[in-house]
């Protein structure tokens, strides 16, 4: 999922739903929820309770530090 964010396969404005991501990666919702929360902690996502997650817009300098 992190690679999809870095490679911009998940767009900044796209709302990320746990259920859809679980189906996409063929994984149960619990590990997806843990991964999403870890991505929030690492600054990749913003969490909106009862709505979902959104990819945090990163600056070009941050992008090159990640890659």
What are the low-pLDDT stretches, counting only 5+ consecutive residues below 50? none
Q: How many separate helices?
A: 4
The CATH homologous superfamily is called Winged helix-like DNA-binding domain superfamily/Winged helix DNA-binding domain
Give me the secondary-structure category: alpha+beta
Secondary-structure element order, N to C: HEHHEEH
Classified by CATH, the class is Mainly Alpha
Name the overall outline.
globular
- The count of DSSP E runs of length 2 or more, i.e. the number of strands, is 3
CATH architecture: Orthogonal Bundle
Quick summary:
With 67 residues, this protein is of the alpha+beta class. It has four helices and three strands, in the order αβααββα. Strands 1-3-2 form a three-stranded antiparallel sheet.
Keywords:
67 residues, alpha+beta, Arc Repressor Mutant, subunit A, three-stranded antiparallel beta sheet, 4 helices, 3 strands, globular
Walk me through this protein's architecture.
The protein is α+β, with helices and mostly antiparallel strands. The chain has a single domain (2-66), classed as Arc Repressor Mutant, subunit A, CATH 1.10.10. Helices cover 49% and strands 15% of the residues. It has four helices and three strands; from the N terminus they run αβααββα. The chain has a three-stranded antiparallel sheet with strand order 1-3-2. β2 and β3 (52-55) form a beta hairpin. α2 (18-25) packs across α3. The longest helix is centred in the middle third of the chain and has 13 residues, at 29-41. The mean pLDDT is 85.
Helix-strand blueprint:
Layout: H1 2-6, E1 15-16, H2 18-25, H3 29-41, E2 45-48, E3 52-55, H4 60-66
Antiparallel strand pairs: 1-3, 2-3
């Amino acid at each position: 999922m992190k690679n999809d964010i870095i490679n911009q396969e998940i767009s900044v404005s796209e709302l990320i739903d746990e259920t859809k991501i679980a189906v996409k990666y063929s994984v149960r919702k619990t590990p997806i929820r843990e991964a999403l929360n870890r991505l929030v902690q690492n600054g990749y996502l913003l969490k909106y309770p009862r709505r979902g997650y959104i990819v945090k817009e990163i600056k070009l300098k941050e992008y090159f530090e990640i890659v």
